[in-house]
Amino acid sequence: MAKITLENLAHSYLPNPTREEDYALKSMDHDWVDGEAYALLGSSGCGKSTLLNIISGLLHPSQGRILFNDKDVTMAPTTQRNIAQVFQFPVVYDTMTVRDNLAFPLRNRGSDPAYIQERVQQIAAMIGMEATLDRKARGLTADAKQKISLGRGMVREDVNALLFDEPLTVIDPHMKWELRTQLKSLHHEFGHTMIYVTHDQTEALTFADKVVVMYDGRVVQMGTPQQLFETPEHTFVGYFIGSPGMNVLEAKVSGDKAVIAGTEISLGQGFGTPTGKVELGVRPEFVTLQSGDEGLPVTIKRVEDVGRHKIVRADFQGNEINIIAAEGENISPEMNRVVFDTAGINIYSDSWRVAPKAA
C-alpha cells in the first residue's frame, strides 16, 4: 500500500505547450492517503484516464513529480511501481482456464502453490466464478471476461495500489452492484489504496471514501460524498453530483441578501459583495413549492413521479428550477412560488464557491 503524492503535476499531449489551454491535465498538488479508496469522477475528456495513466506509469507527465510513499517514481516504469490495473475492456488469456488466468500474477512472482490455490479460490468466490474455474476463457461472455480481469487485478495482496479504469462498463447492471459491493468489501478487508475511474456518480459515491471530481483537466473538488452534496466547491460539482443536479441562477449578492431577476431573497448568512459572474446554487432537496407572495414566481411544467419522491420541473423566467417533493405531497397549479432553505444555499463567483463571511 502507498501514499500517493502529486507534486506540481501537469500533462500536455502537445510537444511545446505554452498556454494553460494546451494542457489536458492542469497543474495540481495532492496527497492521497495510504489505504483509502478514491474515485476519479467526471465527464468524458476531463483528464481522468490521463491522470490514472500517469499514476500507473503508462504515461510520463510533462511537468511535476509523482511519489509513492515519498519515493519519486515519476520516470519509473509500471513494472517497478508494484501496482495492479484493471482496464475498461477485459484483458484475459483466452487459451488459459479461468483458474490459470487468476493465478497468473501470483505464479509470475513465484508465490507458494498452496497460497495460490487458496487465494484463487477466494477471488473466484468473490467474483462468482467458482463453477467455471476449469473452463477456458475463450467463448466466455464479455462480462465474464471482465470479471476475470477484475479478479486478476485483485488477486495480489502486496500491491502499492489497485487502479481501475471504468472496469464495469461491459458488466450487466445487477452484476455491477455485486462487484462494487465486493470491491468495497475487499478494500475494508485488506486496506489497499484504490483509485477507481468512472463517469458514473453512483459508482463513485458508493465505492469511494473520497471522490475526486475533475473538470476541464483539473481537480475541482476532492471530498466525501456528503461534502460534495452539501458544499460543492464548483458549479460543475453541483451540476454533476445529484439527480437532478443543483439549481444555478444568476444573482446579485450583497451581504445576506440576493436579488434574482428583481426578486430579493434572504441568504441566511453574509457573503460580502462577490464580483465576477455571481450565481446562487441550491439543490432541489432544499427547494419548496408553495402558493402565495413569498419567493420566486414559477410556472409548473411537469411532475415526474419516481417512486421514492416527485421531481417537479418549474420555469422561472426561462430558467428551469427542479424541486424534490415528497411522494405523498399534492402538487397543484396554484403552487406558483419557490422558496429556498437557507441552509442549502451556496454562492459562486466565476463558478467557484464563495465562503460565507463570519458574523
From TrEMBL:
Belongs to the ABC transporter superfamily. Residues 4-241 form the ABC transporter domain. The keyword Cell division does not apply. This is ABC transporter ATP-binding protein. One of its GO terms (cellular component) is ATP-binding cassette (ABC) transporter complex, substrate-binding subunit-containing. The keyword Lipid biosynthesis does not apply. Keywords: ATP-binding, Cell membrane, Membrane, Nucleotide-binding, Transport. One of its GO terms (molecular function) is ATP hydrolysis activity.
